[in-house]
Amino acid sequence: MSDDRYQLNVQLAQMLKGGVIMDVTNVEQAKIAEEAGAVSVMALERVPSEIRAQGGVARMSAPEMIQAIKESVSIPVMAKARIGHWVEAQLLEALGIDYIDESEVLTPADEECHIDKHAFKIPFVCGARNLGEALRRIAEGAAMIRTKGEAGTGNVVEAVRHMRTMNREIRELQSLPAEEVVPYAKNHGFSMDLAAKVRSLGRLPVVNFAAGGIATPADAALMMQMGCDGVFVGSGIFKSADPARRARAIVEAVANFNDPQKVLAASMNLGEPMPGIEIGTIPETQRMAERGW
Amino acid sequence: MDSPVQIGILALQGGVSEHRQHLAALGVAAREVRTPEALAGLHGLILPGGESTCLSRLLRLTGVGPALLQAYRENGLVLWGTCAGAILLAEEIVGETPHLGLMPITVSRNAFGSQLDSFQGEALVPTVSPKPIPLVFIRAPQIVGTHPPARVLLELDSYIAAVETDQALATVFHPELADDLSFHRYFLRKCGWQPAGAAPDRSRPFLAVR
């Protein structure tokens, strides 16, 4: 990937700012998402809560399903490849979608390496729990970052933890005297180049969305007030009682995240949200955020 | 602020901070517009890049859409749409219902294809700057037709990339993503801006004689 191409890929993510990216599993859902004002859809066979419930190995979705969704909407389409599975990524690039999510929601294909994203023309978004993880993914060529959160739980606590951690570590890195930057970067596992960039920008050098457990307009506004650039909503919409209404409400809450009256209005009469899961009840081996490094 | 001109950026979704930074580099502090009230007293408003379907829905929902149409018609508000913003301004959209529908142009959405077909280049736009201007196209639309009184500012191979009327400007590329202020300067002039930056420009020849 040339520097110019990487720049264009980062810039597409900039155009998604202030928006909501929604998980959809069929054409009908994709259209509901687009009409509700989603800035992009994530095409996948099973939303994370179903993957969690059904277990087994979760792989890239069937290409014909992704293609059908791509043909049904005018907004950008994303799809997930397994961590380290560069051939799944090659197939998604060949399908001509707009963005690949190298995602911990699927079962990792490699427990040592993530995909070399510089080898691709298509942009990648990757999950991260902290600054080091975010900057390692950026070093590999990710053009957009999202918090991992804990997908499919309807519980925002992990997304909050990951965003808070990133924000805290960015503040720390910025406030360090120059001689302490090298040991800090060494301990957190990232390069001096990227450390310098974060110190001068006071933020990640790419767009950073919240993901993993967002289920209500208030969850979405919470993440925006913490400084995210936008949100991904997975199971939270199409596992709720009234998906179209909830999708519209979350879009409104993200656009007006600093206006409690408007977030309140958006929160009225939405019906039941998706059922939630207490993180402590999930065995550690089944926590998706622990996948990737 | 160097100039009393009041500029707003529609801040419901999309690339808002990029426009704000370009305007700030010209000494203009822009106001973010999320409500009809925030339009009061503005001379110009930028509709940024983003997703036009999302922006259109939020324009209706917040009431900013009808209010900005009114300000355009009754108060002379000058508008500039970049990419998705240009789609919002168009009177006609191929295969879709128009949104604000106030510029006599026809646009075709996602005319180049997916993100894999996004590209950048450079072109001379004589009305806007004597130097070539960098152009960034991201999932860009094309302007495929114009009607008077629209004036074409930039025509590329088989499509039109920039158009203006006295009171509106549409670019299918993203000047806010390029390291160049020409289009922002041009828009500010359309809004009645008297650049304080003109002074250093005039002093240049004295430094440049060698």
Topology:
The complex is a heterodimer of chains A (293) and B (210).
Chain A: H1 3-15, E1 20-24, H2 27-36, E2 40-43, H3 48-54, H4 63-72, E3 77-82, H5 86-95, E4 99-103, E5 124-128, H6 131-140, E6 144-147, H7 157-175, H8 181-188, H9 192-201, E7 207-209, H10 217-225, E8 231-233, H11 235-238, H12 243-255, H13 260-267
Parallel strand pairs in A: 1-2, 1-8, 2-3, 3-4, 4-5, 5-6, 6-7
Chain B: E1 7-10, H1 16-25, E2 31-33, E3 44-47, H2 52-62, H3 64-74, E4 78-82, H4 84-89, E5 90-93, E6 103-108, E7 119-123, E8 133-137, E9 142-146, E10 151-155, E11 160-164, E12 168-171, H5 182-190, H6 198-208
Parallel strand pairs in B: 1-2, 1-3, 3-4, 4-12, 5-6
Antiparallel strand pairs in B: 6-9, 7-8, 10-11, 11-12
Structure description:
The complex is a heterodimer of chains A (293) and B (210). With 293 residues, chain A is an alpha/beta fold. Helix content of chain A is 45%, strand content 12%. Chain A is built from 13 helices and 8 strands. An 8-stranded parallel sheet of chain A has the order 7-6-5-4-3-2-1-8. The longest helix of chain A is centred in the middle third of the chain and has 19 residues, at 157-175. Chain A is globular and about 55 Å long. The mean pLDDT of chain A is 96. With 210 residues, chain B is α/β, with parallel strands linked by helices. Chain B has one domain: Rossmann fold (3-Layer(aba) Sandwich). Chain B has helices at residues 16-25, 52-62, 64-74, 84-89, 182-190, 198-208; strands at 7-10, 31-33, 44-47, 78-82, 90-93, 103-108, 119-123, 133-137, 142-146, 151-155, 160-164, 168-171. Chain B is globular. Mean pLDDT of chain B is 91; it is low at 198-210. At the A-B interface, helix 1, helix 2 and helix 12 of A face helix 1 and helix 2 of B.
